[in-house]
Amino acid sequence: MKNIKNIFLGIVCALSVLSMSSCKGWLDVNTDPENPSSESAAYQNRLAHIEFYTNSAMQFANWRTNFLIGDWTRYSGGGTYFNASIWLPQSGAVTTPYQWWFVGAANNISYMIKKAEDAGAYHYVGVGKIIWAYGNMLMTDLYGEMPFDEACAESATPPYNTGKEIWLGCMKFLEEGLEALAKGQDASLPALALGDYWMGGDVNKWVKFGNLLKARWINKLNKKQAGSYKDGKYDAQAILDALAAAQTSINDNAVIYHTDDNSTTHDVLGWDEPVDYSPLYSVCGMNGGYMVTKMLYDNLTNFAGNGVEDPRADRIIPWAMSGKSADSPAEIKWKGDWRRSLGIDMVSDEAPNLNGGPLRANFNATKHWWIDSSNPDRLGDTVYVECTSSSKGYAANQDLLYRRNGTDASKESGSFYSRVSSPTYLGTYSEACFIKAEVLFKKGDQNGAFDAYKAGIKASMEEMNIKLNQWVKEDAGLLDCPSFVPMTDAEMTNFLSKGIGTAANLSLGKIMTQKRLAMHFSVELYNDARRYDYNPEIFFGFGVPAQYYQSVAAQQAVPLGTQPRRWQQCSHELNYNSTQLHAIGAKVPGANMDAVNASSGKKCWNSDLAVWSIPVWWDSTQE
């Protein structure tokens, strides 16, 4: 994609003149800012660019896929993300991860690897190959087929690779990256820490992260025949071997701890936002109308019907400052003047979206929280609290709490995962535990699976507590809000002993549902939903959105009896690389090769309305 390379050189030029006050210059990629060129950009200075845009691509994909699987929704008629939550996917949502990966990250990687190889800087070579695999695996997870072998070559219209070719290619680069990291690097060369803001230059964490990715990716092949992963088959032993070299405690986690700092260093790909903060804050925390569903609420407050509330519930489900009255629903949880949200029923015949809701609540000094509607069925929608939060550095507010009308009486807490300084969990010990539990359970090792399952839940709570403790240390006033209070040992012990079941009654559904709770806002949850065909016995409380059955357009995109399985290719490929895109359709089972792009009159299987329901390669039995 030669054109993308030209765009990126412009980005390099623009970034070279930015002030680097908060990021210590990690976006200053040129040795000669007056005459920037690809050749003058040092490999150690490219890496932070690559990591920033790769993570942003991943986080935007995490957010946008989450609405397809049932945990979150938006107010009725709330645009792209409400539509996704009722299985009416929108083509306008598919472009950003593609742009941030190819334009912001991928075009830099080959240059960085080549220069690092020439210098013998094997740490940079290894990290570059792992990230190349990581980003391209995201592309095939979302779109299925994609330019891969020639994605960043000279041609502006590169040919497509099949999903299998991409999966095998990503695994090859991942293993080459791990081999490069094992070589070590001469101490006289630039240290990895100079460019690595993901792991701070910790090579051991990179090795563990790479092995977790290996286990994660092989585990996606559960619909394939058993055999060697090198042949694209499901390989249970290879998963366990990779996990043995992955994270063994939360101290090994790959985590980006974002900051609340409106720095002068901003991205230049369209958002114009500071590079320090969490990408999920820009799409969720600073926007209104996002609410938890009954599925998520029930799994956090009464997992598997055990009657024991998960201590993570208070930290994930949003809270609002409110005033309890005689007619307040009994099921609402209160702590002082703080009221916790209930969950929106998206699937039953009584689902609120079938009769005009849910609606956003408003706030004023006279009515307090109220619904602006004449529909009596909607007046109770005040029980749903939005996920909006605020910030001190970015928004110049007094704390992380959002104030709907600017007063303390209208405060909202937001959610743990979507605040300005919420951590990005790239790869964690808890995920490693849940993958191990899944594999062992299917092998018939009930006790081993339960031990891993329990360890994964415990690790998830401990991982969250790290950030909770940091937030209240920075601002003790946040302790007044239940959403910020760290979990106590007693709370965690009680849930682990009474709320998760036993080895004797362990099920795959318990493992996979708890994995969802631990890996909140991750594209891996969308991958899991597809791997197990959106099965409500595997994902507790899941159901097809009720409003899907009322929408002709939704049933055109996702025909009855099917589920969301991929994203339609973004408009750049449909508009500028349609010949190559159409050609790969001959290798895609289910592709409608007679489909016509209505805007151009050109045939392209990917412009078919029902393309969203075609499985990607790993989500099928295709060899």
Q: Can you give the mean pLDDT?
A: 92
Strand content: under 5%
Radius of gyration: 24 Å
Secondary structural class: mainly alpha
The biggest beta sheet is recorded as: 3 strands, antiparallel
Instruction: Estimate percent helicity.
Output: 25-40%
Number of strands: 11
Termini separation: 29 Å
Give me the side-by-side strand order of the main sheet. Answer: 4-6-5
Please sum up the structure shown.
The protein is mostly helical and 623 residues long.
Secondary-structure blueprint:
Blueprint: H1 2-15, H2 43-66, E1 72-74, H3 79-85, H4 96-119, H5 122-143, H6 163-183, H7 203-219, H8 236-244, E2 254-256, H9 279-285, E3 290-292, H10 294-301, H11 313-316, E4 319-321, E5 334-335, E6 338-340, E7 362-364, E8 368-370, E9 402-403, E10 411-412, E11 424-427, H12 429-442, H13 446-474, H14 489-498, H15 508-518, H16 523-531, H17 552-557, H18 571-576, H19 578-584
Antiparallel strand pairs: 1-3, 2-11, 4-6, 5-6, 7-8, 9-10
Helix pairs in contact: 1-4, 2-4, 2-5, 2-9, 2-16, 4-5, 5-6, 5-7, 6-7, 7-8, 7-12, 8-12, 12-13, 12-15, 13-15
